[in-house]
Specification:
By secondary structure, this protein is of the alpha+beta class. It is built from one helix and nine strands, in the order αβββββββββ.
Length: 125
């Protein structure tokens, strides 16, 4: 017959098992967010507008929640994307971070301000 477990062993064994279980079930450590390579967030009249640049189009979500896709069209300078009703125009900068962007609708243009790369979760390691 095995000897009875000591009081310390009876106390520590469940605590150790619980600790091992908690560590094994813990969520993986969250990686810091990183800047997106193709998506920016801008302010349009004080509301956030997220724009994703693809090779020949841009996709964005208006502050009202409308999803819009615009095709790239020739521009005398800078960039221009349109669907015939709405436009995004800008000049200079890089393809995924143009400067001087404007949102154009119904013949009215509004500047997109404070554009920065959208922060996204880092890829899992």
């Amino acid at each position: 017959m095995p000897p009875p477990a000591s009081p310390i062993r009876r106390t520590l064994a469940p605590a150790i098992a619980a600790s091992v279980f908690a560590v094994a079930c813990a969520a993986p450590e969250k990686q810091p967010d990183v800047p997106s390579q193709d998506t920016i967030a801008c302010q349009l009249n004080g509301q956030r507008m997220v724009i994703r640049f693809l090779p020949d189009e841009v996709r964005f979500l208006t502050p009202e929640g409308e999803r819009v896709t615009l095709q790239k069209v020739p521009a005398s300078s800078g960039v221009r994307y349109t669907n015939g009703l709405v436009e995004i125009r800008g000049g200079g900068g890089t393809p995924t971070m143009p400067e001087g962007l404007h949102y154009v609708r119904d013949g009215n243009a509004w500047p997109l301000r404070d554009c920065v790369p959208l922060m996204v979760p880092a890829p899992a390691k």
